[in-house]
Write a structure and sequence with these properties.
homodimer; alpha+beta; Arc Repressor Mutant, subunit A; Dna Ligase, domain 1; 3-stranded antiparallel β-sheet; 3-stranded mixed β-sheet; 5 helices; 6 strands; flat; binds manganese (II) ion; binds zinc ion; DNA-binding; cytoplasm (chains A, B); DNA-binding (chains A, B)
DNA sequence: GTGATTTTGACAACCATTATCAATAAGCGT
DNA sequence: ACGCTTATTGATAATGGTTGTCAAAATCAC
């Protein structure tokens, strides 16, 4: 049976305290800074479990890193993500859902799923970068 | 200036001969099987260049591997991909383009890009799997 | 509390991708 | 055609995220 450990709870809380998407490594770093001695492998395992249970959303960053986020919305939705600071907006996109279903059906595809993510610079980061600040400071 | 080499042309042709999306490693393997002595690093570079020039499309597979495909359509478009056999249909989706732009603008995001891919089982694979065949045979 | 079983975590292994850099070769001027 | 400049190649090392290993520690049913 599945056992409850403080490590899994720590990962859940750390993920909740994070604004946007975050990598396993970054979350492990954040936990360490709070004094937690949790191991890196454990963070990977906990995040994988959360994603499998639907408690967290995951996506592949454009450079192939897996990112995780605790979602406030329970149902199916998508994300608008700042590629500089990670700020994330959850998006309900009925329009795109319908489009995806239609496209698959029109071509005889079954068991269709879709990946829909929008990356950009949030208003704040746009301002900062225009002022000559460095990205990801 | 940019020079023309048989290696780049070999990668272009190998990519054209491929039905669906393929990884750099797999393409390198395919080239080797035809007797080509091309180096792996060169395949990575050539694919990166093709993608940068818009001659190839690239996407991150669900497990974080970069996949490439020679596009017949020159403009921006998306893909409907069979997760079993790799068969790919190119999709023009003005509706989704407009949606992505609107979503970004509505939230003050700039420099927006989007990832939109639909994965499913093509008609043929649906039939085969229903008949009890194994996936990815 | 005891013990079977799960979980952890330091570390190694893995694997895709990128950086090195000496050797090679494209292509311009001659 | 011939050098010469310089982009390109490719064997190899390095990088970096992720997963596997396995003995030690922790959980929980009894
Ligand atoms: Mn959707
Ligand atoms: Mn698009
Ligand atoms: Zn931002
Ligand atoms: Zn198929």
């Amino acid at each position: 049976m599945k056992r409850n450990t403080w490590q899994r709870e720590a990962v859940r809380e750390a993920l909740d305290d994070t604004e946007g998407f975050i990598s396993a490594q970054a979350l492990h770093g954040a936990l360490h800074q709070t004094g937690s001695p949790i191991g890196l492998a454990t963070v990977y395992r906990a995040l994988g479990d959360l994603a499998a249970n639907g408690e967290a959303d995951s996506l592949q960053s454009p450079d192939g890193e897996a990112l995780y986020r605790a979602c406030s919305t329970t149902g199916h939705h998508h994300h608008l993500i700042c590629r500089n600071c990670g700020l994330t907006v959850e998006i309900a996109a009925d329009e795109v859902e319908a489009w995806a279903k239609r496209v698959a059906a029109d071509h005889g595809f079954t068991a269709a799923a879709h990946v829909v993510d929008v990356f950009g610079l949030c208003a704040n980061c746009t301002k900062l970068l225009a002022a000559g600040e460095q990205p990801l400071a």
